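Quarterly update from the structural biology core.
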Amino acid sequence: MRKMRAAAAAVFLLCVLCALFRFPISASAAQPMDRREEASCYSCIRIEEGQTLESIEEIYNDPDLCESVHYLEEVRQINSLVSDRIHPGCYLTVPCYRL
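Predicted structure, tokenized:
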């Protein structure tokens, strides 16, 4: 339990720092779309009951700027997710392609 709290605190701190400096967490080597650099920021969000990666993608992604499959890959990479399983109350860092 202590390790989980420490990990959650570390993720939250990283999200705050990213929000303050608007500094991308991940410098992905593969650029899936030419217009991908148009993401204006990264946000740290708290997962609510019933949310999935796909429902989060619908909120924060603009499919004209980044295809869904690439957006979800980026979210998994940024957050070191090995599956699409997410839990309410946890935090995710997500790129914002839609304001």
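The longest strand covers residues 41-46.
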